[in-house]
Amino acid sequence: MPPTTRTENEAAYALFDKFVLNDQRNFYEVKVSQYRNSSQQVNKIRAVLAFTTGLASALAGLVVQSSFDNNGQCLIKNELGSNLVGLINSLVGGSANCSALQALVVFLIILAVIMPAMGGAFNILADLYQWDRLITIYSSSLENIEIADAQSPDPEMDDMTYRASLNAFSEGTLGVMYDETAQWGQLIRTPETLSKFVAAEQKIADQASGGATSAALSEHGGFGIAPTIDTAASPTASTPPIAVPPAVTPVIPAGANPPSVTPPTTPNPSPDSNQAFGR
Amino acid sequence: MKQLPRFSFPPPNPGFELIDSAGLDELLKGKDPEAIKTIKDDLHFMDHELMRLFRERDYEASRQQNRYRLYQIGYILLATLATLIGSFQALALNSAPRLLPAFAFGETLVALGATFLSSISGRESPFELWMINRRRAESLRREYFRYLINLPPYNQLEGFNKRRMLSRRAADINRGVFPTEDADPAMKE
User: Fold this and answer.
1) Considering Cα of A30, then A34, then A36, then A37, what sign does the dihedral take?
2) Which residue has the higher pLDDT, A179 or A79?
């Protein structure tokens, strides 16, 4: 076929430069900045939740140790308890008593329960969006697109060189887009924690309904999430799973000792577990 | 907040363009009229042969992505609720055993909620559909520019042969058969 003319090549270059390379560069820059902000916000929230959990647990421990005996009786009259009551009085400007201390302990325990659960939710949210890893992919694409840009044709080039340069420039840019999409596709996974959660909940629902739920689901086609999870490659492998409570036994036999209860602990925020928004 | 899914997903935009007409006219102002005509003819041809498919795939990918995230965030909320109920239930074992049936009921509701969510997500996973459609849309986008810049395999063809090649490759991409993309080996290193 006849080769494209110089003027056609120049028009094609102008078009590709503006609507592909610059568009793509802007996309990467915007996404990197957006994801960095999201990642930082979620990290801050997780840190605050972890800190609040620790603080609430420690305070609850302090109040219980200093103001109650082993049988839960208020020791408000002993010296340490009085000091604590005095401290609370000075802080709140009121008069604390045993009931107030008990209410405070309950409040702190509730905080110590709610905060780690919320922290767990943010951990999974970070796994779902994969911000940190997408930042890496888009930053690397941004660097690579500059290499493609370096091959852009120059007006001083002769026609043959101009066309060859235009080919290298546009193939290079399309190559960066191809690689980025491939990596992005490999990265996006359903958080493993959520698939486990749904499986566990199905069992509970089955127990409650005598198997009717799973029968209905198998007719319907089963669970629609994450049939393709690659556990080994999952970026969530290091993420502590959110605590899924066991199936409930609502009736306690008379006279049986209830099992000892360990206060819930904060899941450790993993630095590698937060990452994404799709395209 | 911008990244959170929507309950009501907006309808497709039938006029969506990869190259907006106003920007194109501005860019090509003063260029060779013959070159402008060639580019506009190519764009006009691709609007029917490729952009139609791209718009469908792109919209479907976004819609499935929204669906997927909506369900996943639903699961996250349910998992958080389940954790809270379980924790309070554990605390109530010592202090308020009479509340245990209520917690058990709450736990069952959460389980039913999770089951309901997974049921309405249907036989076809939104995650799979998102990935499939996104991959095809991105491949169609690259093909669009490959044709416009006259990159291989289009540089060897002209006239109806070139147009037929585009139609064939676009149709292949749309059905999940991806033709080779001949990138410069130097750029791949």
Assistant:
1) positive
2) A179
Q: Using CA atoms, how far apart are residues B125 and B67, in angstroms rounded to an integer?
A: 10
- What global pTM score does this model have? 0.74
How far does the CA of residue B98 sit from the closest CA of chain A (Å)? 9
B50 with B144: CB under 8 angstroms? yes
Residue A164 near residue A195 (C-beta atoms within 8 A): no
Instruction: Decide if B21 touches A, using CB distance below 8 A.
Output: no
- Selected for mutation to probe chain B from A106, A177, A225 (highest B CB count within 10 Å) is A225
Rounded mean pLDDT, A236-256: 37
* Owning domain of residue B88: 32-180
Residue A156 C-alpha from the chain's centroid:
51
What pLDDT does B28 receive? 87
Tokens matching residue B10? 């907006």
User: Which of B12-16, B90-94, B169-173: highest mean pLDDT?
Assistant: B169-173
Distance in Å, alpha carbon of B128 to nearest chain A alpha carbon: 8
- ipTM passes above 0.90: no
Closest residue of A to B120, CA-based? A224
Q: What's the rounded Cα separation, in Å, for the pair B53 and A3?
A: 29
Single-letter residue type at A63? V
Residue A122: partners with Cβ closer than 8 Å, 6 or more residues away:
A42, A45, A46, A49
Q: Which of B60, B54, B107 is nearest to B81 (CA)?
A: B107
**Token reading at B173:** 């991409």
User: Which of A8, A15, A273 to mutate to test binding with chain B, by most B CBs within 10 Å of its CB?
Assistant: A15
The number of folded domains in chain B is 1
Q: Is residue B154 part of a domain?
A: yes
Stated as kind and residue range, the H or E segment containing B165 is: helix B159-174
What sign does the dihedral B76-B79-B83-B89 (CA atoms) show? positive
Tell which residue, A279, A24, A278, has the closest CA to residue A129.
A278
Q: How many CB pairs under 8 A join A and B?
A: 269
Is A73 in a helix, a strand, or coil? Answer: coil
DSSP state of B183: -
Angle between helices A79-92 and A23-67 (to 10 degrees): 140
For residue B52, the model assigns a pLDDT of 94
